[in-house]
Write a structure and sequence with these properties.
The structure is a homodimer of 322-residue chains. The first copy, chain A, is an alpha/beta fold and 322 residues long. Chain A has 13 helices and seven strands. In chain A, 48% of the residues are buried. The interface between A and B is large, with 73 and 73 residues.
Chain lengths: 322, 322
């Protein structure tokens, strides 16, 4: 135990990749490794990038990586990509541009399906953030595609949430309904050369009372979302966007929220670890203990119900020390 | 304890609505009630209806309800609707047509946001299915809007999955990527009067090797997805669709899969109950026990890590009887 953690701390990409695969598989082996990594975390700026497919998130991240690197920041990317739960593989190979960074020591990219993760997306993402943080990445970008509960859950795992939109692009009712706009610290209107970009900008301004003449940071330290127009395909506007992201980080630092994020994350992680551990112990016994096997058989024979069986099992295995 | 379960078994809509609200809130009170209901379940045919917003699912369900009722079936609907996690309310009131059934004793409709459910969507949906099943609903329709992990998870909670599509409607790459097509037992091409409906039909046929001249049930009892063209708005094709859904049920009955579903559900429910119970006990102690409070404080003071704290807590509270 610990050889993967050792590797991660030495910035060994192979060790990190292996550990992340175990995390993806919800393998019990990860616990010991993550424990060793935890004391080395809490330094990364974690940024969520979300928006509809086709909004150009991957291209945008590609250019953002260049900007962060030019200011000597190391970058990790966790890309949660919708794929078929049945084929297990990504259907579209639309990460070609981002791949140019994949042979680059300063940029670590982990691409993942957003379906069928054992134990849930946000749990695995939280652990992967721990790995990249311990690896010493200054910036961790978490990319989610689509519109759904995942995107809103990811909000709780990042410091800064960037929502990428495109003017005149499809049905915004869908993303309004999904509550994606409300989670934004920063809006990006990508493909800003399109006719409808300005229209979308003024819609957002009135929807979120955004006033360019005022400071983004209010007197009480709260943050008003800001809007950046970009053309990721040729890099236009992305420099300003990365500066805006840094502004948000500074606002979090000043108000102490940057560290509060990490404390909240540790507490959530604690709860996950405890309930995972107990649950897996119990389930192991369910499969091996002859009494429990009989109880589960009663259940599937329909001669009992899961609540009664649960009570019997709980009374057998659990005793709380006084 | 038990007065809500009593009410549900007497088909009292108010009692059922109250119990479902507790389920939504992940209230511990539900355990005792659900335990009493469980022996009365296992009879409903549970049908998932999924597809992109705008595909006309609600209108379709509305007409399906009429068909089921005309054959003397009672119907329950669980509608999982995207809403803002921050406002808590549904933005669009697009359930007006379905509302006509809401004063109808034979149709019970529970409409829900798909965000911010304490404890997760699939857990709550599973419990709501138990309530409607115990209420004696012949048919339970579970409607999910959108494309995401939810839709794929819901697949495990239903007997029959109906995927609603519309020809020439937006970007199908999104739903292909999300793996929605693979979960279909039945495809509906709604708004079939549109030009692109036939095109979509032939795409699906070639994608899933669907041959109208062959039986939907193969020699080994497996099911080939079938396609129905509907115009929900005027009811066209919906009769055939409901017959097709019944064909699928009969196929499941013949192969014994209909009951296997229920056994799998009880086993999954058992696991949820056990891990919920233990987890809530532990978390209760985390908040009240002075030793645990100190450990959590160490954690947020960054003088420890969640893995070490979890070990200490687990060694204190847990002992497995031999």
């Amino acid at each position: 135990m610990g050889y993967l953690a050792d590797g991660v701390l030495k910035k060994d990409i192979k060790a990190a990749a292996k550990l992340m695969r175990y995390i993806e598989e919800d393998d019990i082996k990860t616990t010991g490794e993550l424990k060793l990594l935890y004391p080395h975390t809490g330094n990364s700026h974690v940024i969520g990038i979300t928006g509809l497919p086709g909004s150009g998130k991957s291209s945008l991240i590609d250019v953002m990586i260049d900007y962060f690197k030019s200011s000597n920041k190391t970058v990790g990317v966790i890309a949660i990509d919708p794929t078929s739960p049945f084929t297990g593989g990504s259907i579209l190979g639309d990460r070609i541009r981002m791949q140019k960074h994949s042979s680059d020591d300063d940029v670590f990219i982990k691409s993942l399906p957003n379906k069928g993760w054992r134990g849930g997306i946000s749990k695995a993402t939280s652990k992967m953030i721990t790995v990249m943080d311990a690896m010493g990445k200054d910036i961790i970008l978490v990319e989610t595609a689509g519109v759904g509960q995942t995107e809103v859950e990811i909000k709780n795992l990042v410091h800064t949430t960037v929502v990428v939109l495109v003017g005149g692009f499809g049905d915004y009712i869908q993303i309004i309904k999904a509550g994606i706009l409300e989670i934004a610290d920063i809006f990006v209107i990508n493909k800003a050369d399109r006719d409808n970009a300005k229209e979308l900008e003024s819609d957002l301004k009135s929807m979120f009372s955004i006033d360019d003449s005022k400071s983004k940071v209010n007197d009480n330290g709260t943050w008003t979302p800001s809007i950046y127009l970009t053309e990721a395909i040729n890099g236009k506007g992305v420099g300003k966007l990365t500066k805006g992201i840094l502004d948000h980080k500074n606002c979090l630092k000043k108000t102490g929220k940057f560290n509060i994020y990490f404390k909240k994350k540790s507490k959530e992680d604690l709860k996950e670890i405890i309930s995972d551990y107990i649950t897996s112990l119990v389930f192991l016994r369910l499969e091996s203990d002859s009494l429990f096997k009989k109880l589960v058989k009663d259940l599937t024979d329909s001669s009992s119900d899961p609540y009664t069986v649960a009570e019997k099992i709980l009374s057998k295995i659990l005793s709380f020390k006084k």
